């Protein structure tokens, strides 16, 4: 009887240790946090004939954009991004600057060989514009911005990135709207991986 009892308890203890194992790492990636900076060129949609990022090259705003991405939050492809974009240089005439502080979800759309990544994003937040003519639109506005990133893993903790963002400022000048958009080129480094 003692042998049967010890055999039964051994089997129970062994089976509970099997269920206590963690999920394999292929089931879900660990949270990763990346920080980086970009150089941006944007059509300000103020003082240009149209809002295409490929027109008005002599009047594009230039600047920098630090950002932070957190990936694999709840689901494998889901993350968040926060950015601050400062566009103080060039532009149509003197005195036009734009800046924004945006955050929102990002979703991994395509991944190839763990080296190439394509993600979509939808950011919201605050935009600020200073116009050459005092009072004509200068101020803070609500902004929402769909966009996409293409990233190439250069090293284990380093990626190069190209970003496109189409911003909508619906309440600019009493509802007239503004649609600055453009490209950014930068790098990011894994702080947590």
Architecture overview:
The protein is mostly beta strands and 193 residues long. Helices cover 9% and strands 54% of the residues. It is built from one helix and eight strands. It has one helix at residues 2-19; strands spanning 32-43, 61-71, 78-90, 97-112, 116-130, 139-155, 158-166, 181-192. Strands 1-2-3-4-5-6-7-8 form an eight-stranded antiparallel beta barrel. 26% of the residues are buried.
**What is the residue-averaged pLDDT?**
84
Query: SS-based structural class?
Result: mainly beta
H/E series: HEEEEEEEE
Report the uncertain regions.
11-28
Provide the helix percentage.
under 10%
Globular, elongated, flat, extended or rod-shaped: what is the shape?
elongated
The count of helical stretches stands at: 1
Amount of beta strand:
over 45%
- How far apart are the first and last residues' alpha carbons, in Å? 53 Å
By DSSP, the count of extended strands is: 8
Strand order of the largest sheet: 1-2-3-4-5-6-7-8
Chain-wise SSE layout:
Layout: H1 2-19, E1 32-43, E2 61-71, E3 78-90, E4 97-112, E5 116-130, E6 139-155, E7 158-166, E8 181-192
Antiparallel strand pairs: 1-2, 1-8, 2-3, 3-4, 4-5, 5-6, 6-7, 7-8
Outline of this structure?
With 193 residues, this protein is mostly beta strands. The chain has one helix at 2-19; strands spanning 32-43, 61-71, 78-90, 97-112, 116-130, 139-155, 158-166, 181-192. Strands 1-2-3-4-5-6-7-8 form an 8-stranded antiparallel barrel.
Main features:
9% helix; single chain; 193 residues; eight-stranded antiparallel β-barrel; 8 strands
